[in-house]
Write a sequence for this structure.
């Protein structure tokens, strides 16, 4: 009787374990290795790929409830034997376009479109998307260029998000402050500096939650060249764009809010105003200190005369 019971138990275990061995791994199975791995592995063209995934940070990201193979479609069986099914045509289209740029797994980076089709369609028509998908440029931005590693992406309202209101200027600046990129694509490398010197930029630096960032005026996934008639910062469109915050904005008003180089007169006027402001405060502080010193001196003299 015990022999039959043992045989039956062995049969049941085999029915459970055999499918499990061929099943796609969940995140826990992947992190069992990758959370403890250290160092990098060299891919083609000498690219080094970090093997470690921080399990705690991943669990707190917007993708923390996902399984790794939801994005790593080319690794949908364990351990990394290959795809369990053909990759979606839209995903493969983007993967082919970004393969010169992707350092790790272009299919995984392209898998964003499976859950985010609307941002992807806007991106394809944008100046960034056309640069990558039509011109095949290796320096054009893809999803991870702005949002960071899919393992650690935070929701936009999070202060740790790369597209959080107070972080987005730095994110855009990674490319738009580069002299090489500016010369190649014909924009000023000072656009970020000029923005931060503007009223909008100063409000942002002061922590004003209503201050406009890059995306407020230029857009995000569907961003267009400023020379494109459909761009919100092209010609007559500026009045409508500025009018969202400044109803009744005129041509003269919108002309003042640009990234154009600061005029020398305005530059020196600003320096003069800073010197005047600092000088005034220093004069007041010195005057108060001298007054306090004089008061103390008079008190000491009066005290000496009294004792005399």
């Amino acid at each position: 009787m015990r022999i039959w019971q043992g045989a039956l138990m062995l049969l049941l275990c085999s029915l459970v374990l055999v499918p499990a061995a061929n099943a796609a791994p969940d995140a826990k199975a992947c992190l069992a290795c990758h959370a403890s791995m250290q160092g990098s592995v060299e891919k083609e063209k000498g690219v080094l790929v970090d093997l470690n995934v921080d399990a705690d940070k991943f669990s707190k990201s917007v993708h923390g409830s996902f399984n790794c193979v939801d994005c790593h479609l080319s690794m949908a069986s364990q351990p990394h034997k290959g795809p369990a099914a053909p990759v979606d045509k839209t995903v493969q289209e983007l993967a082919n376009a970004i393969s010169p740029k992707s350092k790790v797994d272009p299919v995984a980076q392209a898998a964003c479109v499976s859950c985010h089709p609307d941002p992807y369609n806007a991106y394809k028509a944008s100046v960034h998307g056309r640069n990558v998908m039509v011109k095949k440029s290796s320096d054009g931005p893809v999803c991870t260029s702005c949002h960071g590693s899919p393992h650690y992406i935070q929701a936009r309202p999070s202060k740790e998000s790369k597209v959080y209101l107070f972080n987005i200027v730095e994110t855009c600046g990674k490319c738009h402050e580069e002299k090489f990129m500016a010369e190649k694509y014909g924009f000023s490398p000072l656009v970020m500096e000029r923005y931060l010197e503007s009223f909008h930029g100063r409000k942002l630096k002061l922590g004003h939650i209503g201050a406009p960032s890059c995306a407020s005026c230029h857009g995000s996934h569907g961003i267009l060249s400023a020379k494109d008639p459909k761009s919100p910062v092209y010609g007559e469109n500026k009045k409508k764009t500025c009018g969202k915050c400044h109803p009744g904005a005129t041509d003269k008003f919108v002309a003042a809010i640009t990234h154009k180089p600061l005029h020398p007169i305005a530059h020196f006027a600003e320096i003069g105003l800073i010197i005047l402001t600092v000088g005034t405060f220093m004069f007041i502080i010195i005057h108060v200190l001298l007054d306090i010193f004089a008061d103390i001196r008079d008190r000491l003299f009066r005290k000496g005369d009294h004792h005399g």
